[in-house]
Amino acid sequence: MNFKDTGIPSTLKVASKSGAGTVISAVSGKKIVIMDVIASAATTIKDGSSGSNSMLMQAGIASKLNVNIGGAGAEVYSTAGDISITYYIL
């Protein structure tokens, strides 16, 4: 995938997690851009260790999302359910 607006080449990645916890580990100095979420139950997606920072979104089962950007250098945390997130690093 090539992002014409920025000229930044990027590859989509998928991360999965069973139950609450960190879904995507932090990448120092980089932002995580979430493209879509599939969850087995309603969940809240947060950034920061143990979901201690801002709420990024609430997702129901099989939520199809547009773009949602996490904070620079923050991990992505889910509060419940089995979850799969499609994302890229910016």
Please provide a written account of the structure.
The protein is mainly β and 90 residues long. The chain has one domain. It is 0% helix and 50% strand. The protein is built from no helices and ten strands. It has strands at 2-3, 8-9, 13-18, 21-24, 32-39, 43-47, 55-59, 68-69, 76-78, 82-89. The strands form three sheets. A four-stranded antiparallel beta sheet has the order 3-10-5-8, with no helix packed on it. Strands 4-9-6-7 form a four-stranded antiparallel beta sheet, with no helix packed on it. The model has no long low-confidence stretch (mean pLDDT 76).
Question: What is the fold's blueprint, element by element?
Answer:
Blueprint: E1 2-3, E2 8-9, E3 13-18, E4 21-24, E5 32-39, E6 43-47, E7 55-59, E8 68-69, E9 76-78, E10 82-89
Antiparallel strand pairs: 1-2, 3-10, 4-9, 5-8, 5-10, 6-7, 6-9
